[in-house]
Amino acid sequence: MKSGSSHGHVSHADAHASERVAAMLRDLKEAGLKATPQRVAVIETFANDPTHPTAQELFDRLRERFPAMSFATVYNTLDALASAGLASTLRLGTAARFDPNTTPHHHAVCDRCGAVNDIPTESMAPTDDAKRHLASAAPGFVVRAEERIFRGICGECGALVSRGERKLS
Ligand SMILES: [Zn+2]
Ligand SMILES: [Zn+2]
Predict the structure, then answer these.
(1) Residue spans per domain, the chain
(2) pLDDT-based confidence at residue 11 (cuts at 50, 70, 90)
(3) What percent of the chain has pLDDT over 90?
(4) Ligand located closest to 160 CA
(5) Class of domain 1-101
(6) What spacing in Å lies between the alpha carbon of 92 and ligand 1's midpoint?
(7) Residues with beta carbon < 5 A to ion ligand 1?
(8) Tens digit of pLDDT for each residue in 23-59?
(9) Please, which residues have CB within 8 angstroms of residue 62's CB and are 6 or more apart in sequence?
(10) Cα-based angle 12, 18, 24 (whole degrees, multiple of 5)
């Protein structure tokens, strides 16, 4: 049965998303948190969210449907997932962003609108080059992963900018 997803496009990603929801719910129970309707809603919303939301953004989105939802519920649920490795956190500005995609990937971040996109990669293991640079620049540093952030202008913003330029000319 298809749940009332308000997503514009349906793809094979939906199958991954429902697997993700199932894994996250299992994990919630292992973390000793009961699967209350509010926590389930947090997980369902988060697992299908490619935007790398902050806890506050998710809270604002959920509060429309769940007026009694507390920020603590949202934050604690995300925190439990992150501690179990079913979500990662990403710091690009002041607030931590949460990421439900646990497959290896880098990020592309738009300078204009702040959109964050996943860029799949084979592995997050540091390259030999990176290891060499670390050894000389940060002696003794034990590297866990090499994450890259590509900065630039996203497609949508690029289109807006060029449309604006056309208007001007
Ligand atoms: Zn953009
Ligand atoms: Zn990501």
Answers:
(1) 1-101, 103-169
(2) low
(3) 59
(4) 1
(5) mainly alpha
(6) 15
(7) 110, 112-113, 115, 154, 157
(8) 999 988 888 888 899 999 999 999 989 999 999 999 9
(9) 41, 42, 45, 69, 74
(10) 140
pLDDT, mean of residues 132-136:
92
Distance from the CA of 159 to the center of ligand 1, in angstroms? 9
CA of 65 to the centre of ligand 2 (A): 26
Distance 134 CA to ligand 2 centre (A): 24
Ligand that lies nearest to the alpha carbon of residue 159, given by its number in the listed order = 1
The alpha carbon torsion through 77, 25, 66, 88 (nearest 10 deg) reads 40
pLDDT in tens, 55-100: 999 999 999 999 999 999 999 999 999 988 889 999 887 889 999 9
pTM of this prediction exceeds 0.90: no
SS (H, E, C) 4-25: CCCCCCCCCHHHHHHHHHHHHH
Domain 103-169 class in CATH: alpha beta
Q: How far is the CA of 110 from the centre of ligand 1 (A)?
A: 5
Residue 11 CA to ligand 1 centre (angstroms): 23
